[in-house]
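Q: Structure tokens for this one, please.
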Amino acid sequence: MGEAVSPYNRRMERDEDLQARSRALSSPVRLRILRLCLHKPRTNKEIAGLLDLNPATALHHVRTLLSTGFLAAEDARTGNRGAKEIPYRATGLSWGSRMPNAAPVLVETFLQEIEGLQPSEIDVWRLGVRLNDEHRAEMMGRIREVFEDYVQRGPDDDGTATSIMLAHHLDRTAD
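A: Here is the predicted structure, written as tokens:
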């Protein structure tokens, strides 16, 4: 018979899990790994090659994402030279996860992901508005609903992988 776990200990475990997940999402490299593994399972070797990382460094990040539930290992397969390879796929857990102080990490991740793209491969919009708190909350809620709708739809079999980053900030130059 197992020991009873107090509600305090359960809360401490949940807090530790949340902290570990927040730390896992605090790295642009790990966010890029999640994006690479979103639509297609990738091995550590593939991840390292695509991100120009040392395989040991990539493995460290993969293990962090595995231990926090952001990546899942699929069935092992045999590689070109007969070695066992484990492909990893993003679980989608990151979409609903809170990221304290996320803006700098997300902006850096975005900048890394667009590096080397042609201007025609990036669609950028910029809008300046003056809204009260109610209208700003309404606008952000409607945008979030659109994002949520597309997350719930899942990928199109014939689709092209794309990314969207939306940044909302105060405009200190307008006052």
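A few notes: The chain is about 45% helix and 5% strand. The CA atoms of residues 70 and 97 lie 10 Å apart.
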